[in-house]
Amino acid sequence: MYARLPDELLSFTLSKSMQRLKDVDMNCGLIYTSLPLFCGLQPYSRYDHSLGTAELAWHFTQDPVIALSALFHDISTPCFSHVVDFMHGDHENQEFTEANTGTVIASDRKIVSLLQQLGISRESVSDYHQYPVADNDSPKLSCDRLEYTLQNMVRYGLENKEFAAEALSDLSVGQNELAQTELVFNHEETARRFALAAVGCGRIYSGKEDRYAMEILARLLKAAIQDGTLTEEDLYGTEKEMIRKLKQSPHGNAWQSFTRLHEVHVVKDGCEGAFAVAAKKRYIDPYIHGKGRVSEVFPLFAREIERFLKEDYSVLLKGEF
């Protein structure tokens, strides 16, 4: 669906740091549970997402620096992704896992060598936040948010592949209401439908099943690190290797229990083992060329965002295993 990267940029995907991301799943460990929405999903790795984001950046800009910054934007993501944010208490911002991009790039000899061959500095590709087409502040639209939203709206059954392709073809690089560069839609209805699907994805990303499972796994990882079963360095290996170590450790039963999680309920005070957990609420309010934000053009969508943001995450949750 996306534009293929030229060979000189694709060569970066063969680096050790990028290949590691093939075994870091986008769903933050949820595919290892028995939760119905997640356990049957086809794998969608941080590598898949990173490559797709780079391909989108190339599609919209034809700029190798922006494309590479998009390719590398998740290169420091640990195993189980945002579960590690939860483990460090960063439930609502989920930014802990973004800190080491430049360090990982600088330590990968293949990436450094290829950058030198192209005459591109490490600094120019170590922070995709400096390129608003690649990344920008929520709830604006960028290649990063676009890629995982197009993928997940189809994977979660919220939209079909035909609409995903239609949404992509309706986008272009333009100027938003603040005269800033942003990916903008050309047609109101396409933008509205995309934005609704994005809110639907957001409800899944921070739904009771997602945040409960992530907190259970975060506590398991924290306990395994505290007793030496795992190290912080293990977090930056592969999920397959971490799972192997957990299975062979005193935490093996806890891991097996996690994989049996199949339902999550909201419960009343006093329920043993129940807990509340917060999470980041993700949504996109795209800009429509010459019209404004979807929330401005469609008041019903503005109310949908308001309802989402008011959803109560202080409720107690209890899982069935």
Structural notes for this entry:
The chain has 321 residues and is α+β, with helices and mostly antiparallel strands. It has a single domain (7-207, 280-316), classed as Hypothetical protein af1432 (Orthogonal Bundle), CATH 1.10.3210. The protein contains 17 helices and 6 strands. The strands form 2 sheets. It has a 4-stranded mixed β-sheet with strand order 1-2-4-5. A two-stranded antiparallel sheet has the order 3-6. A hairpin with a 3-residue loop joins strand 4 (287-288) and strand 5. The longest helix has 19 residues, at 208-226. The chain is globular, with a radius of gyration of 20 Å.
Produce the secondary structure layout.
Layout: H1 7-10, H2 16-20, H3 36-39, H4 46-61, H5 64-71, H6 83-87, H7 101-107, H8 109-118, H9 122-125, H10 143-155, H11 161-169, E1 171-175, E2 181-185, H12 188-205, H13 208-226, H14 239-247, H15 252-259, E3 263-267, E4 287-288, E5 292-293, H16 294-297, H17 299-310, E6 316-320
Parallel strand pairs: 2-4
Antiparallel strand pairs: 1-2, 3-6, 4-5
Helix pairs in contact: 4-5, 4-10, 10-11, 10-12, 12-17, 14-15
